[in-house]
Structure formats: structure tokens, C-alpha cells
Amino acid sequence: MADAVAARVIATLASVKRIPAEKIALETNLQELGIDSLDVFTLLFELENAFHISIPDDDVRSIRTVNDVVEGVRKLIPAASPGTSVGSATSAD
Amino acid sequence: MVPRRVVVTGLGIISPLGQTVAENWESLREGRSAIGPIHSVDCSTLRFQNGAEVRGFDPLAHFAGGKDAQIDRFAQFAVVAARHAMRDSGIVLTPALREQSAVISGSSVGGQLAIEEGYQDLYLKDRGRVHPLTIPRTMSNAGASHIAMDLGFSGPTYTVTTACSSANHAIGQAFRMVRNGEADLAVTGGSEANFAYGFLKAWEAMRVISTDTCRPFSKNRRGMILGEGGAILILESLEAAKARGAKIYAEISGFAMTSDAHHLTQPTVEGPSRAMRGALRDAGMTPEEVGYINAHGTGTPGNDPVETRAIRAVFGAHADKLAVSSTKSMHGHALGAAGALEAVATILALHHGVLPPTANYDQCDPECDLDYVPNQARSIQVGAALSNSFAFGGLNAVLAFRAVHS
């Protein structure tokens, strides 16, 4: 089951690509969703707004799956933020 | 090579009068104005509240996978109008034709909505960041580029930006490319989406916007009314169109452009006159052939008498025999798209044998003393027509069309 961070990431992705959230799983490859480089920019922008974080350019290059995004966001959220203590069932890709 | 005759075989239009060619024509024929209270912007702090907006345009109905958020409204209008125009033309694209096709669009302000959204985020909401696609959304060539990507045209593609003449300049360039054999097909027109608060404030400061409606050539005219939209024409050679048995709307016979070299906002009689004469000469058309002029007709105190004098200067006694109307009275002034919306109106007038009226006309002005087809369309088949566009900065562009009867 997805935790709060993962759920928020998936909802953001769904909104950016205008697709139902049910079509997105943690192990889904971003390419499979038709996410291109412009979509990635938009996704990062929306995630920064949603989580009040700033995502460094270097963190972006290794993103391949939805879970990569979730874990990347998790690292950047301040420790006290809600949703950071819940582990994800699928941490490996 | 011998210059080719160039015909219009496809039309697409998204305007305040409707989102199909048929809807637009019905409104023009009925003299129905789309001018009304502006909905998309809070105008309570503006001196004017009326405009001609495209209502009910749903980007999600046209763009999937989040593409709608990548493309500013002005470029969305261009793409959707281009799709409609291509479908209307019935042209079957081959790889060779795709390479031999030009896409030339006009836009005056480009992605104004995206610019203002970014400024709001930065300066008003203090977000410290703007949407990551602000640059590609705002670029004025987005319309042409998205048309090329959407329909797969890989020939010459660019955008002309000459304020209110942008679309006429674009169509004129496209016409010449097809005539000269530089392109076998051209997708051309213009689009604009400018209902953004800062932009409306800028127009307010120019003091040229009417507080009620647009009454071109009428003595009680009080200024222009802003519009928005997009229109695209498909141009090809007469030979190619005949060879495939295409429906031909009209022929583009001539084009000319001049500069007043005078004043930013005050038009001259000479600049527009020379542009009209040039278009006639380019078309090999006598003044007496022209039965209709789709005027620039902004409804400002400045433009309309000067345009009237320019028409008199070019046509002499024949000026009293031709009909002149400003369809801006119905679809508003769509700036960089104006020439495209008006080219469609002119082409359909030739095609259907009906001249669209000047709506909201109710007071004769001694300074505007031509036949402006007041308020009611006129059933008359004219052989040729001009479409005038004159821009701030003194840039004039005139297209000449001939009726084609199959």
C-alpha cells in the first residue's frame, strides 16, 4: 500500500498527465506513462509546490520509476513533516 | 518558373462567433455580435468591461496527456484551427508533401496568459518560482511550432509578429511561397489569446477601447473591442487543387505591404492606400473588379475616417459602388489573429455570395461616407475582395481575393 508521500506523488503525476491515479503504481516506469522531459519539468514543479521542497537538478537525472520520485521527495521533506515515517512496500525497482 | 495561382482549399476557425466555420458563417451572415461582458478576467477595476471572448473552449477536449498545460491558449487556438482546416481540405499528406509545406502563423502578443501567470506567481503570490514551461508557452512562434509538430509539417515554419497586421503579413508570405513554388502547401493564419488583466490594463491606458460596443464607421463609435481566437487557411496551387478535385473557397490573387513611416498610433492615408494599390497591382486586378472590402475598421475615432479616405484615394468614383464592412463589430479585434478571422469572413463572402455586415452601425458620419453594409448581410456575388489590416507602428498589409466558381 502506498503511504501518504507516495499517494501525493501519484496524485500529482496523474494530474500532470491527465490520467487516472489507478493507472500508476510505484514500480511503474515513467516512460510507460508517456512522461517526456517536459512532463518531468512540470512534475518537479508541482511536487516542489505540493511538498514545499526544492529539488536539486542532480537528483533529477536518476529518476526512472515512480518509486524513484517518491524516494527522492522523501529525502527532501523535513523530518517533522507528516508522511515521512511510513515505509513503502516496494522500495526496490 | 511561371507563378502559380494560389487557392484556399481548407478553413479552420476558433473565434468568439463559434468554433466551426459553419457557426462563424452563420453569425456573420446574421450580423450577430459576440461582444459582451468579459468573463475570464475580473474587470471591476478597468474602465471597460466588454470584449469578444471565445467561450466554452475546452483544452482537454483537444489535447491529451497533459499537453494542454504545455501550450498557451493562443497556440491551442492555432493548433485546433489548423487541424480543422486540414480536415476540411481533404488533403492526403505524403512524406514529400510534408517537407514541401510551409507553416506561417501570425501573433502579436504570443503567450500573454502564460507571462502573466508567471508574474502573478512571482510578484503577487510570492512563490519564488514560475511554471517550468513558461518559456515555450510564451514564445510567439509556439502556434507555428505546435502546428508543425501536431500535423507533421517539416518545411519552412515561422511566425510573423506585426501587431494588428500579423495574420495578414503571415498569409501574404505564405501566399507568395506557394505562388513562387517555394512551398506546395501552406498552413497559415494567426491566433491570439490576450484576455489577461495586465494586458487589458495596458489597453485601458491607450484609451482606445470602447466602454460599450464596437461601432465601426458609425458616428457614435467609441473605440475598439478586444477579441481573441485563431483562424487557419490551407493554401495550394490551383493546379494541385483541381488535380485532386478539391473544394475551392476562393483564390488569393495578391498581397502588398507598406509602412507609414510616420507615427506609432496615428495612421496615414498614404500608407494604407499604397498597400491597397499594391495588392491590386500584385493581383492584376482593376479597382472596378473589387466589390467588397473587409475593412480594418477598428471602430476608433482615428482609424475609420482615415481608412475611408484611403479607400476613396484608391478607388475614386468606384468607391461609391463597392461595399465595405468591418466584421470586428462582431468578433472584436483579435489583434494578431484579426487578419485571419477577417480573411475567413472575406473568403466565405466570396464563396457564398453574401457580404457580412457592419454590426452596431446606427449613425451616419460625414467623415465615413461609404457603403458599410449596415447591420444586415447583403446577398450579392462579387468577383473580388480586399481584406485590410493596419497595425500600430504604421504597418499595413492587404490581401486580394477572387471568387472561384466551380
Question: What does it look like?
Answer:
The complex is a heterodimer of chains A (93) and B (406). Chain A has 93 residues and is mostly helical. Chain A has a single domain (4-76), classed as Non-ribosomal Peptide Synthetase Peptidyl Carrier Protein, Chain A. Helix content of chain A is 47%, strand content 0%. Chain A is built from four helices and no strands. Chain A has helices at residues 4-17, 37-51, 57-60, 66-76. In chain A, helix 1 (4-17) crosses helix 2 and helix 1 crosses helix 4. The longest helix of chain A has 15 residues, at 37-51. Chain B has 406 residues and is α/β, with parallel strands linked by helices. Chain B folds into two domains: 6-243, Thiolase/Chalcone synthase (Peroxisomal Thiolase, Chain A, domain 1, 3-Layer(aba) Sandwich); 255-402, Thiolase/Chalcone synthase (Peroxisomal Thiolase, Chain A, domain 1). Chain B contains 13 helices and 14 strands. Chain B has helices at 21-30, 73-89, 95-99, 112-124, 134-138, 142-151, 166-179, 197-206, 238-243, 270-283, 303-315, 328-331, 338-352; strands at 6-14, 36-37, 50-51, 101-106, 157-160, 185-192, 229-237, 250-259, 290-294, 323-325, 354-355, 378-379, 384-391, 395-402. Chain B has a ten-stranded mixed sheet with strand order 5-4-6-7-1-8-14-13-9-10, sandwiched between helices. In chain B, strands 2-3 form a two-stranded antiparallel ribbon. In chain B, helix 2 crosses helix 6, helix 7 (166-179) packs across helix 13 (338-352) and helix 10 packs across helix 11 (303-315). The longest helix of chain B has 17 residues, at 73-89. The radius of gyration of chain B is 20 Å and the shape is globular. Chain B starts with 5 loop residues before the first strand and ends with a strand. The interface between A and B is medium-sized, with 13 and 13 residues.
